[in-house]
Amino acid sequence: KELTIQNNLSKRYQESTEALMKYNYGIYNGLTSNHNQVEYSLFDQVHVHDVHKGKNGYLHRYTPGYFQNKGFDNYTLNLYLDLLKRFADSLKLSGKKVVWAIAPDKSIVYKETLPPEIAFSEPINRYYEELKNGLRSMNFSYIDFNELAIKEKEKYPFPVCNKGGIHWTQAYSARCYDSLCKYINTLAGTEIEYNLRYYMTGTVWGPDYDIENAANLLVPLERDDSCYLAELSALKTAKNKKILLVGDSFCHAWMWNKFFDKNFSTESEFWYYNRDAFLLDNTVIPRNPDNKSIRDYISKFDVFVITYSAANANMLDYGFLKDVFGE
Description:
Layout lengths: L4 H5 L2 H13 L1 H18 L7 E3 L5 E3 L12 H20 L3 E7 L2 H4 L16 H12 L4 E3 H8 L17 H19 L4 E8 L9 H6 L12 E9 L6 E5 L4 H5 L12 E4 L3 E4 L4 E2 L8 H4 L5 E7 L10 H5 L3
Parallel strand pairs: 3-4, 3-11, 7-8, 7-11
Antiparallel strand pairs: 1-2, 5-6, 8-9, 9-10
């Protein structure tokens, strides 16, 4: 702020100057890292919202009420399952398909590393269990990557989730993309084929350590098993199929590495939390630019994939089906 009598009396000049000194001089960042490291190492405190230090150096993110065994009321879940049935039935008439994919929750897959003071009962996340049971009872197509990850977390040389990350690793997201594509082949009659290669890089993929990066620690967490990436080379594609991916931040690993872009139509879209829209090459586009009804707009897509993590199960699909049916 400019030094004027008004700014000086209102403290705006002092506050803006303090902010400038605080964030633009190197010593501040170093002192912050030192401070955060001391609090992490000695007092198990992490200065990131809803992030907690667990056992064996694992960081976990959860809200204060996450382990209170809350679940859906009958009306909310039954209404959603009814909408999903109507949606699936309408797609079936035109030969189109919808599949739910539940991304893994670190607190479920690595529950043995939760902070020792956390008291939880089984199931850890009732919303997730009730959603999964509802999908199963109605014979809807879904993939639960939590079940897969629990079975496989010692199978690969890379982890499902890194110690300092909240999402699946880039390599494990590719493994799940492989599973999803095979499922779509069976469900929709596509013949997608590709080479999937995992390789050592010597460095980590930055987003794999998102919450550790946010914690601004001085000493990195252990990451000996984290220097893996996946590479996908298309052999046979489904470029004639338009896919609509609706999901949360777990989809970023698929999108930022352009896995879908290699296999599906360039007219496909990703709706982030059912709001922000992107092409498969990550180009930002308007969502429903002609202001049609959502139901009319999405009629151009052939395959619908709804992907949210178990931690977001209480929000279902963030209003996607309500938008479709105008409810």
